[in-house]
Amino acid sequence: MPRRPAKVTQADIARVIRAAKAAGASAVTVDAEGTIRIALAASAASIEPTGDGAEIWTPSETLQRYLKRTESG
Length: 73
Hints:
Strand order of the largest sheet: 1-2
Distance between the termini: 37 Å
Radius of gyration: 15 Å
Helix content: 25-40%
């Protein structure tokens, strides 16, 4: 029986851990389904939802640098 393809690769996990550490995360969890959860420390800045139900989200400088590095094209 052939092996099934990985939902999350080791490289994906390494990237997530590096970015999470840089953002001040306290824990990173990967479950069997490939879901990655990042627990932020209590001191991490939270984003308050707006009154209309939509959230305004601004990526951190660390995430912006990471996304810029990984852009293709």
